[in-house]
């Protein structure tokens, strides 16, 4: 059973297929992570919290990622709870300076011209299809202090502000019953997410970092921030968004990174 074909909501899916999938998964896990399967708290943060491990150093992040690595897309997707919020943190815990990461060097960060910038929405959407930066800035804004977890073995707490993605998708007339949202970037990076994650309350189209315009290194003019997903699922410099039922893959996903990529 694949997420790509799945139309059932997670709980119905869990009721009919959950037992056999979880039985397989349990065999792979050692305590204490194993006990958490029964509680359905399978995020990296959730396991860290309840197993008494912390994510304050790269070694512990690496150890957790190794424990989590057996998860396949289906198990993760069926366990995703759209109402569960990722942890948030006080300002005093923000990591300074926040790390930069991309598939290239910091000297090669793309420069996007704010005057000519247009965000395109395509695919299963019948509303507003082109957005300028000023139009995005005029939408209701929120902010979050959350932890970014990179699969390469580091994590950092950052402060982002922007538009709730669910709000943006509705204003764009997106068909929210579609399976995927794909996100294409100015540096030709791309990724894609499932619709429940796109509509999650903490998924933000961020325009600011720590109260200032998002700097180029962190994704100017905008980065989709999802604290429920690993770093590589958080695309920077987004120029085009597509709503689709066809599996879009992604830059790292097509090279073997797990597509669901939950944190
Ligand atoms: N456009 C684009 N987005 C991207 C990447 C990239 O190379 N290009 N790298 C991803 C990875 S692997 C990580 S860890 C984060 C790093 O974001 P940061 O530079 O703000 O820390 O961006 C993600 N989004
Ligand atoms: Mo990453």
TrEMBL record:
Pfam families: Oxidored_molyb. SUPFAM superfamilies: Oxidoreductase molybdopterin-binding domain. Residues 108-252 form the Oxidoreductase molybdopterin-binding domain. Gene3D superfamilies: Oxidoreductase, molybdopterin-binding domain (3.90.420.10). This is DMSO/TMAO reductase YedYZ, molybdopterin-dependent catalytic subunit. It comes from Paraburkholderia caballeronis.
């Amino acid at each position: 059973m694949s997420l790509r074909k799945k139309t059932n909501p997670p709980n119905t899916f869990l009721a009919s297929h959950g037992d056999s999938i979880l039985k397989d998964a349990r065999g792979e896990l050692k305590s204490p992570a194993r006990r958490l399967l029964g509680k359905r708290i399978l995020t990296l943060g959730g396991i860290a919290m309840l197993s008494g491990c912390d994510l304050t150093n790269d070694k512990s992040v690496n150890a957790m990622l190794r424990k989590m690595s057996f998860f396949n897309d289906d198990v993760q997707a069926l366990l995703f709870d759209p109402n569960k919020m990722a942890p948030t943190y006080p300002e005093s815990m923000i990591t300074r300076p926040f790390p930069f990461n991309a598939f290239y060097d910091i000297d090669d960060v793309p420069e996007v011209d704010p005057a000519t910038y247009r965000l395109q929405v395509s695919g299963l959407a019948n509303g507003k299809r082109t957005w300028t930066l000023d139009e995005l800035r005029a939408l209701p804004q929120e902010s979050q202090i959350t932890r970014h977890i990179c699969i390469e073995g580091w994590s950092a707490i950052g402060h982002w502000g922007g538009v709730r993605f669910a709000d943006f998708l509705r204003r764009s007339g997106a068909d929210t019953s579609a399976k995927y949202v794909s996100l294409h970037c100015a540096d030709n990076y791309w990724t894609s997410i499932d619709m429940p994650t796109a509509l999650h309350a903490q998924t933000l189209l961020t325009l600011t970092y720590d109260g200032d315009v998002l700097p180029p290194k962190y994704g100017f003019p905008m980065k989709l921030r999802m604290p429920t997903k690993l770093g590589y699922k958080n695309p920077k410099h987004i120029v085009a968004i597509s709503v689709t039922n066809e599996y879009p893959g992604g830059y790292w996903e097509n090279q073997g990174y797990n597509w669901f990529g939950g944190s």
